[in-house]
Amino acid sequence: MPWYGWLFMALAFGSVLGSLLLLRDNAGSNRVSPETLAKVKAREAQLKAEEAEEEKR
What we know:
mainly alpha, 2 helices
């Protein structure tokens, strides 16, 4: 394989490795606001109530 093939492979490998390291570093920084969390919990309760109502039929 020519030298530029190895160079391309090294750049691709470095890009993948760098992206994985970036994901690892930013994994804990996704905080959900309390308003969004409240909306999600309300919607979940609504869906559970709808499912329970359908099961009664």
